[in-house]
Structure formats: structure tokens, C-alpha cells
Amino acid sequence: MSRPHDPPRGFFPFGNPFRLLSLKSSALSPWLLSLLTGFELLLAERLKKLIPKNKDDILTLSWMKLAMESLCETHENINTLITDLHLPVSDWEEKWVDVYLDISVKLLDLCNAFSSELTRLNQGDLYLKCFLHNLQSGSDQKKYLQSRSSLDSWRQHVNANNARIETCREVLDSLAKSLTLPNVKSSAKGKVLMRAFYGVKVQTVYICSVFTAAWSDSTNDLFDLHVSEKPLWAKVFTDTQSVVNGEVRDLLSSGRSTILKELERVDASVEKIYPMIQDGVDDTVEAETFKDCVMELGTQAEKLSQGLDRLLEEVESFFKMTLSGRDVLLCNLRSSDLISGNVFGEDVG
């Protein structure tokens, strides 16, 4: 539906977002207000959960999993809202459909990039397993050399750049450049839908920017979004963004090799073990210390691998949800056009 010569567009770039957000009680029926209020309160609760009691939990894989679960729940809620509104696809303005499809393609691209990075990091576990296997099969100089080689390979692997993550910034920029809402004049249901979409897109862009910053180790990929004060989730979002961004920036400015907490713990264990292998273990005390360090590495590596697997599952769930939403919309559009006697994609004049 977009024409090749049209300029790049972000989320619903159809005017001033704050115009729609000045909804008054008299503009909507009690039923529509109830639907919108329920949606926004759920979103506020979800965002509040992203502020942990201990800020050190931010950017753990369990926190990232919670963030992705939160995003999936919000997208499920918007699908439920669309159903509750009884707003047939045939009643959607063409520009809404056009932009929805454009957004969903970008979300699929982000999911693919995130999945590739999680898979890449988890592949590093093979080097750690090889390291542990070499030590278990002997402790002579040859085994130490093989073990050191495995740790070197692990370091190179996890510190390598992922070209797909590097493209995320461009995708996010295109989405965040115009966080606006269309000016819906004739449809009360359309106003509710677009205001709800505003919350969805703000949460989506922000969480994806945090993930990208975590994997690129760059504050340039971390967004500070300015949102309207009107939605019921606005204050919670601003608080969440402030806390999370503050912690991410502190981590990035600390000079750490990585800001992902589980990965950092594995890296710390590797840093302890590496000089021991290089210099050799001479006496009983050193041998006992070395054994404890190796056990700790095995434990932390297992936690990292499990955390990456769980987060990957959530990212894949979000991918499937986005893809399913596109399929349903396209099928409904085809059905609507066939019922009206038009072929999908044909100019109906």
C-alpha cells in the first residue's frame, strides 16, 4: 500500500499524538471508556513489574525474560481489545492497515536479530564444555594447553560483533522517529484502538531498545522516550524508563566486558581460572582453589545456558504472535474483499 517514493514512516505518523490523547469522558461511551481504562491499567501494572526491588536484577536474563513476557501479554491484550471493540477489519482505514503491516515486518526483523544473538551466545557453551571435559580427562601440560585454547575460543566468540544486532538501531530509529497517533475524527472505536496502540508501540520500542543496548554494549542504542502524560500508564512508564536506563548507563560506563549479568559471572570465573592454567597448579592448596573455580565456572555456565534458552523461547513466542497477527489480518482483508466482490489488492476506486 505504501508507494516507493513515500518518505520512511514510523509508528502511525499522522499528526500530533497529543491531540488524540486529550480524550474527554463525553467523547466516548462508558463501555468504550471502560475498555480503554482496563487496557491502560493492565499496561501500567506490567510496566511497574519491570522495576525490581533490587536494581542489580536489571539486565539479568530472568529480567529480560520478564520484559519479553510483558511485551507478549500487551500484544495479546491489544488483540483482545480489537475483538471486544467488534471493529471489523473492513472498517479499518487503509492507512491503519498499511502502517500495521509495516510495523509488524520491523518487529519480525528485530525478533530475528534477537534470536540470532541468543543462539550465538549459547553456542559459546560448547567451548566451556570442551574446557571442562579436557580438565576431567587429565591434568598434564597438554591438557592445560587444550583447556586454555578452549577459553581463548570462548572469549573470542562471546566478544565478537553480531551484524544483525548492529542493524537493530536503524529499525528502532524508524519506529521511534514518529511515535504519533492518527487523528481519528469519525470513529469512537477507532479513537480507543489508536490510543491503545500508542501504549503498545511505546512499550515495544522501549523494551527492544534496552535489549539492543544490552547486546551492543552501547548507550547509543538506548532510547529516552518522551510520552504524553494523559495515558494511565504514562507515569509508571516514565519511572520505569528512568530506573532501567540509569542502571544500564551505569553498567555501560563501568568498563565491564559485558553488562549481561549471567554472562558477566561466567566471564569473571574464566578470568580467575585462566592465569591458573597458564602458570600451572603446583601445590595442594592451589589445586583445591583451582577445583573450586572450575566447579563455579560449570555452575555459572549452566545458569547462563538455561537463561539464554528461556529467553529465546519468549522471543520466539513474540515472533510467532506477530506473524500470526499479520496472517489473521491479511486473511480477513482477503475475505472482506471477496465478500464485496473485489480481489485483494485490486484498486476499488
From TrEMBL:
Alphabetical list of InterPro entries matching this protein: ROH1-like
Protein name according to UniProt: BPS1-like protein
Record field: transmembrane: none
One Pfam family from the record: ROH1-like
Subcellular location per the Swiss-Prot or TrEMBL entry: Membrane
Native source species: Brassica rapa subsp. trilocularis
Alphabetical list of PANTHER family matching this protein: BPS1-LIKE PROTEIN (PTHR31509)
Superkingdom field: Eukaryota
Similarity annotation: Belongs to the ROH1 family.
Bilayer topology term: Single-pass membrane protein
UniProt entry tagged with the keyword Transferase: no
Signal peptide, first to last residue: none
Gene name of the encoded protein: A05p007290.1_BraROA
Alphabetized UniProt keyword annotations: Membrane, Transmembrane, Transmembrane helix
